[in-house]
Each structure stands twice: as C-alpha cells, then as structure tokens.
Amino acid sequence: MRFTALVLVVTLALGAYAEERGPTSPETVEAALAELRRAETLDDVAVGEAGDRTATYASYETLRAKASEEQLVELTDDENVVVRCYAFRALVEREATVDTFEIVKRHLDDRSPVVTFRGCFVRAEPVGDVMVQDLLDKLGTKDRAALAEAVVFGDGKLAHRDVMLRTHPFTKKDAPRLRTLSDAGDGGALVALARIGLEEDVARIARALDVDPQTIIALADPLRAAALRPAPALLPALERFWPSVQKLMPTTSPDRFRNWVTAVAAQEDERSAELLQGFLAGQTPDWARAVRAEIVWDAVNARDWETYTPVFWTLWSEHALIDGDVLRKLHEIDEERAVEQIERDLTTRLDAMPRAALGPLLDTHLWTRGERTAEIVAAALPNADARTASALCRTAADALDESHVNPLFAAYAHENPYVYVAAARALLAYDDAEIDARLAKTRTRPGWGGEWLGRVLDAAPRSWWAGASLIRAR
Questions:
Q1: Measured CA distances, 458 to 22, 414, 417 (Å)
Q2: DSSP labels for 116-133?
Q3: Burial readout 378-403 (b: 16 or more C-beta within 10 A, e: otherwise)
Q4: What's the CA gap between 208 and 186, in Å, rounded?
Q5: Which residue has the higher pLDDT, 178 or 369?
Q6: What is d(CA 198, CA 215) in angstroms, rounded to the nearest whole number?
Q7: How many Cβ atoms sit within 10 Å of the Cβ of residue 198?
Q8: Taking the domains of the chain in order of start, what are their residue ranges?
Q9: Which of 25, 59, 269, 440 has the most CB atoms lying inside 10 A of its own CB?
C-alpha cells in the first residue's frame, strides 16, 4: 500500500513538473518536423504573458538537438518558412562548422513572411530579416561589418537594411557607394554619409534640405543628417523652415518639430540660439509649451555652453528645467542671478521643479545664503511630500538649524513613509537626547513604513543616509 502511494505521489509530481515546463519534445527529427510544418508561428523559448514554452518550441529543441548539420543546411531552403528559420537558428545556436554567413547571404532577398512570436509580440517578418537577426546576435565587430555591407549594398530589401544604414558605423571607403544610393533618393544613405562626416557631403545634405518649407513636419532624414554633420552652410537651409514652424506651432504637436530643433541646435551658432529662443516663445497650449521646452532641453544639453547660455537661462527661469550640472555652470557664469532664481524656485514653485534638481538647488543656496535657506526650508517642511521631502530633510540635516526642529516634526507626523522616514533621519542628525525622546514617543506606524522607521531609529550607529554630505554616527 505504501509503495503504491509513493508511486502515485511521484507520478503526480512528475506530471506537475512536466505541465509546468510545457509540452514534451518529440522523440525524433521526423516527428519534430511534422509538428513544425503545422505551426503557424515561429516561437521563442517563452511566449505570452505567462512565458509559456509551446509545442512548436519543444519541436524546435528536438530539431536542434538531433538533426545533423547536413540536414539543417538542407532545411534552410525548405518550402516551409517556419522550418527554414528554425533550421538556420539551430545552426547558429549549435555554432555549426558550416558557414552560416554564406547561408544568410543566400536569403537576403527572401521576403517570404513568417509570423514570429517573441514574448507577447506577434508580427509578420521577412524570413531574411529573421535570419539576419539570429546571426547578428552571434557576430563580432568585423563580421557585423561584413554582414552590414552585404545587407545594405546587396539586392535584398530587408527591414534590417534601413536600420543598418542609420546605425552601422560606415567608413570613408563606403562613401562612394553610399553617395550613389543617396543621390537616388535613399534617405538612410544620406544619414550614413552624415555619420561618416566628410566635408564634401555637406553640399549633398544642403540640397536635400532644399524642399518646400511647408513639408517640415514630414521631413526626417535630411534633418537627421544635418544634426549628425553640422556645418555653417546648413544653418541658412534650416532657417528657411522657421516661418513654417511659426505658422504650424499653434496647431501641431511639438514632437513634429523635434528633428528640426535638433538639427538647428547641432549648428552651435548665435543664430541657432535665437531660433531656439523663438521656438520656446511660440504660442501653443500649456501642455505643448512644456513638451516644446523638453525638446529644446534635449537638443542643447550636450552642446556648446557659451553659445547656448541664454537658452539655458530661459529653460530654467521660464520652464523650470534645470539639473545639477547646468546649475553649477550657470552659477559660475552669474552667481547673483543664479541665486536669485534659486530663491524664486524654492519659494514660489518648489512643486514644479525636477526632483533631481531639488538637492543641487538647496545645496547651492545653502552655500551662499545659509540663513535665508534655513527660513525657506523651515517654511517648506510642514508641506513636504514624497517628491520634496528627501531634499528638504537632507538640507535640514546639513544645516542643523534649531528653527528646523518643529517643522521636521511636522513632516514626521506625515502619513507617507517617504516623508516621515526622511524627517526622522534628519532629526537623528541633531544627536540630541530630547529630540530622540520625542521621536521615540511617536515611532509606531502601520505596515512596511513602520518597519522601515523602526530600522532607522534602531540603527547603531545611527547616521544620515548613504551619500549625504553629512554623516554623524553616534
């Protein structure tokens, strides 16, 4: 009886394991191929929301494990698209001795659609693209370059061709063939030439920009090329679009102008700065105004500081866009103006400032206007929330001003754990027995916040959180 029960338990356990792992792989290559020929999709190892292993993939595992290299090579030309793709993938994953690159080259013009199932995504792709992607994942830099050359300059028209034109690091030796493609109207080839960066291609980019200015929202590759290969000759061509931009801004999403803004910013000229200032000042709804400012911020943030200093001041003062690096540079350029702007930010629009900027703003103000900073922090602490509490409480811990104690206890009474734990850490930094006693009286809080607070209050040595400018261990 015991033996029968044990067998039953083991059987049930193995059944549950098999069910969890998914369908059983066929025993033979012939059975696997029969299943794959019936398959409607080319499945990855885990698909769907549950990450299931399908019967199709189980059959592929048998094909990969048991088919010979000769069989797999032959199957890469099979009539069935699922079989073709899986046979090639098996050769790649097995690191077969056959030249998989040569097999891919035979299929660069294979645009037969196969439905791929990756994760939760199902879509039709050309067989050639599937094979290229499988091989790309295994190639080194030199072989990737050879594959890119075959895809871009070959007769096939795979989706990877367009991607490679825009992303592959082509060199000067590729320029003549890319010019031929560009002159025939291939926008990706123009982008590739811009990435190479030769002076003789500037005129080609300028000619591509010589179109009806009303087409600005549909223009893409010439603007991308102008951003990648800036030159003085391109700014007049870009400026031609400005009247159309002004006309379209009130009724058009700012994102439609992103390529133009990026191209203008890349030129790093005083006139570029004027155009960007004009773009920021354009009449649009409030939501579009914020997006427009973020587009300009992204375009100028890695550009020449001297040229775009006025733009950074505008982004900060009128759009509340600032970070630590920009703040430090603007503070070096004009300390008085920067500190005045910081005070306006902290007293009138604290909630609007980027969270990552709050610490640098408070630190800079504390260094220059310490007593005034104490007043600002004391006023803001009772209304601190999860977004502002960390920076405000850290500044209070740095200052250790007596005027902050009661405001910190007001924050400590907050129901949000991110607020009351930050306040507790700041209060602990005072290293004061009376403050510790007040903290202990009201330490009980519900849930995970209470557990977190308990760990902070009981820590030995107790200190300000890692990375703070002040660490006071008892």
A1: 48, 20, 16
A2: EEEETEEEEEEHHHHHHH
A3: bebbeebeeebbbbbbbbbbbbbbee
A4: 11
A5: 178
A6: 27
A7: 13
A8: 21-138, 354-474
A9: 59
Q: How far is CA 310 from the centre of its chain?
A: 28
Q: What is the pLDDT of residues 80-120, one digit of tens each?
A: 999 999 999 999 999 888 888 889 889 988 999 999 999 99
Coil, helix or strand at residue 27: coil
Confirm if 398 and 426 have CB atoms less than 8 A apart.
no
Tokens found for residue 96: 């077969």
Which letter, b or e, does each residue of 327-355 get, where b requires 16 or more Cβ atoms within 10 Å of its Cβ?
beebbeeeeeebbebbbebbeeebeebee
| CA–CA gap between residue 113 and residue 129 (Å, rounded) | 10
* Distance from C-alpha of 395 to C-alpha of 369, rounded to nearest angstrom: 13
395 near 366, Cβ under 8 Å?
yes
Q: DSSP assignment, residue 229?
A: S
d(CA 304, CA 138): 39
Calpha distance 376→208 (Å, rounded): 54
Distance from C-alpha of 282 to C-alpha of 363, rounded to nearest angstrom = 34
From CA 133, how far away is CA 296, in angstroms rounded? 35
Average the pLDDT over each of 42-51, 186-195, 361-370, 383-392 and give the range with the smallest value: 361-370
Q: Which residues contact 417 (CB under 8 A, 6 or more apart)?
A: 445, 448, 449, 452, 453
* 387: its two tokens: 């977004």
Q: Measured between alpha carbons, how far is 78 from 87 in angstroms, rounded to an integer?
A: 9
Long-range contacts formed by 58-61: CB under 8 A, 24+ apart: 58/22, 58/23, 58/24, 58/25, 58/26, 59/25, 59/26, 59/31, 59/32, 59/33, 59/35, 60/32, 60/36, 60/86, 60/89, 60/90, 61/25
The tokens 């693209």 sit on which residue? Answer: 129
* CA distance linking residue 381 with residue 423, whole number of Å: 9
Q: Which two tokens stand for residue 186?
A: 């291939």
Q: How many residues does the chain have?
A: 474
- With tokens 């206007």, the residue in question is 369
Helices (H) and strands (E) in the chain, counts: 28, 3
ω before 310 within 30° of 0 (cis)? no
Q: Is 45 helix (H, G, I), strand (E, B) or coil?
A: strand
* Cβ proximity of 293 and 280 under 8 Å: yes
CA separation for the pair 7, 4 (Å, rounded): 5
Tell me: the pLDDT tens digits for 53-85? 999 999 999 999 999 999 999 999 999 999 999
For tokens 């629009």, the residue is: 349
Enter the tokens of residue 430. Answer: 């005072």
Rg (CA), the chain: 32
Amino acid identity of residue 91, one-letter, is L
